[in-house]
Amino acid sequence: MNPSMKLALLFVVALEISFTTIVSLNVALIIIALIYLLFKRTRLKTLGWLLLVPLLPAIGLWSTQYINGTGDKTLMAWVLFTRIYAFVFTGATFTLTTNILQLADSLEQNWHLPAKFAYGVLAAYNLIPKIKHEVEIIRAAGRMRGQTLSFWSPQLYFKAILVSINWSQNLAQAMRSHGFVEDAPRTHYRQITLRRRDWAILIGGIVLLQVGVFIIPWY
Amino acid sequence: MVAIAIEQLTYAYSAAQTPIFDHATGTFPANQFTLLTGPSGTGKSTLLELMAGLMALAPEQGTIRYGHQPLTAIPAGERAKSVAMMFQNPNQQFAMDTVENELLFALENQQVAPDQMMARLTAALDFVGIRQLQHRILTQLSGGEKQKVALAVIVAMDSDVILLDEPFASVDPVARASLLKRLVTLRDQRHKTIILADHDLAGYAPLVDHVMQITPAHQLRALPRTDWPQFFAAFEAAHQPDWQRPALGVETVFNFQQLQLQQGRHVLLQPTDLQLPRHRNLLITGANGCGKSTLFEALVRLSDYAGTISYRGTDIQKIKRKRYAHHVALLFQDAETQFLNITVAEELAQSQKYASGDYFTPERIQTALSQLNLAGRDDRVIYTLSEGQKKKLQILLMLIIQSPVLLMDEPLKGLDLKSIHALVALLQTTLAVTHQTLIIISHQLTGLTPLIDHHLHFENHQLHYVGRGRHES
């Protein structure tokens, strides 16, 4: 499916289940997401982690609601419990099957977002692991000059911001030196198509969701 | 193909008092290989950036012409077709994640038809001889490999003029020779115009057609061929001295037991036992990406390793980080990494405040500053200094700190011969008093040799001493 359409559909789903209290709907969404992930050949180990990691916060929410909640405590406790899993699994249908490059391509080609923006997002994403190591390096550089930079030290952030500004300038220069010109026409090696099918899935998905929310008499 | 003419170029950074160029005029002939030289900080990078159109030039600041056409008249979209640039820092030239995606990005920008892209991409990779890197992630490549990829991008873009700003600053001799060979081929077979800025001029004499100098009077001057022999002689590789291996039983500063280094799943150093002597200056050489910098990161506990590293008898993992940092400091390869403040004066003050010894009195600091040609820049924002000035300031800051052990990663990077001599002299007079232990990684040996006592070579995932004398391991 087209990456940006998939993201849009998931956004609507997330928004809607945030305001509904239907346990069966959440469970249905989890099952659909699970089937999709299995269909996309997600490794079972990854699925195991997806089940395990949210367990603690889910139990936490469940027990808080069950013990301290008001109104229908049992129902609300299970709504929150299943909602966490619905978020995680529907989210995973995007993060585990789509990479950021495809999303950037789609935003640029299908929605005509400025290429500068699409590549900026992409570059920022590629920088995340570098930033972590860079913070360690900044702290080491401080220690070697007698200064302990704690995680709340403004100097650490000043330095990190300087490094980021530097990186962004270098990135802009790298892009320009490789022929990138803002708003200039470009060709695309990876063609991301936006088919009727993508629209059909988006609209169909949203309609089905409304059926689930308002029409089916869930218990 | 067209010659590039610089006409009446006058340029100054707003913060600097003196101009970098003062009505400079000169011509870079078409289809030829021109070497651009000048001491560090004289404006080689600035000139190349101006010629590449990466920095704008106002009409009153002079004109840069490609043939008859002023650079400013070439539409931005067509500039990449005319001129491409390769940067000094191999980490600063890529926008994408993998080699393939970076090349595609450049081809897309040139509006190459998608069905022709893969052919051009593989042709460019084959030309540079790095087809095997096509699907690799850029951040996992060594400096030399990154520069080869940068050249492949330029080949794929097929730009007429290729500008290179000290492209070999962190490239080992083998990769450097291979890159130079490709540049000569680009000139001879594809009629490219090549302009390369460097200050380590070893090996260029037989390759280049012209030498263009930036003079102390901020002018451009073509060096007459009759002056070449004398000019290049200063850089010809001095024969490598035959250093001694450390004697048995000397006091050691670091002791490696089964030390093993890895980068991802790639083994850099196989389990090694080795002693590094105290109060001696040690040189570490080895090809690009072999793991020299990773060894330094392990020594200052910035990266993981297997086995044990002991500092004067204690496992470094058992020493408090803060205390250990007072003993073992690292001069980072990139000078900016070292800086913590904003102005030169603030940086100097910080080093003085936390110095482990009192050798560097304010007078000695002033002397050192003028020795390094850095005097009178107290209020300058460090980030506006030239790369060479940053490097010299960085080294001085770490000398003032006077940690018992100083690891230096490519301390000569970006420095001209005059600065190197000044720096080595400063190091010698300082070490004579402070008795620090220096461990130096350097590709460039010109001028550095008087400082070195022992030599370690990194090769085939092994680290061993070279030279005369007996030493096990």
* Rg of chain B, Cα atoms, Å: 23 Å
The helix-and-strand class of chain B reads alpha/beta
- Count of helical stretches of chain B: 14
- Give the integer mean of the pLDDT values of chain A: 88
Shape of chain B: globular
Backbone CA Rg of chain A = 22 Å
User: Could you give the order of strands across the largest sheet of chain B?
Assistant: 6-7-8-3-9-10
* Estimated helix fraction of chain A: over 70%
Strand content of chain A: under 5%
The assigned structural class of chain A equals: mainly alpha
- Overall number of strands of chain B: 20
Distance between the termini of chain B: 57 Å
Uncertain stretches of 5 or more adjacent residues of chain B:
none
Mean pLDDT of chain B: 88
Query: In percent, how helical is the residue content of chain B?
Result: 25-40%
Termini separation of chain A: 32 Å
User: Any low-confidence stretches of chain A, pLDDT <50, length ≥5?
Assistant: none
Largest interface: A-B, 43 and 59 residues
Structure description:
The complex is a heterodimer of chains A (219) and B (473). Chain A has 9 helices and no strands. Chain A is mostly helical and 219 residues long. In chain A, helix 2 runs parallel beside helix 5 (73-95) and helix 6 packs antiparallel against helix 7 (115-144). The longest helix of chain A has 30 residues, at 115-144. The radius of gyration of chain A is 22 Å and the shape is flat. The relative contact order of chain A is 0.14. Chain B contains 14 helices and 20 strands. Chain B has helices at residues 44-51, 76-82, 99-109, 114-128, 143-157, 173-190, 228-233, 292-299, 321-327, 335-338, 344-353, 362-371, 387-401, 417-434; strands spanning 4-11, 21-28, 33-37, 63-66, 69-70, 83-86, 161-165, 193-197, 210-214, 220-222, 252-263, 266-277, 281-286, 306-311, 314-315, 328-331, 405-409, 437-441, 454-459, 462-466. Chain B has a 6-stranded mixed sheet with strand order 6-7-8-3-9-10, with helices on both faces. In chain B, strands 16-17-18-13-19-20 form a 6-stranded mixed sheet, sandwiched between helices. In chain B, helix 3 crosses helix 4, helix 3 (99-109) packs parallel to helix 5 and helix 5 runs parallel beside helix 6 (173-190). The radius of gyration of chain B is 23 Å and the shape is globular. The termini of chain B are far apart.
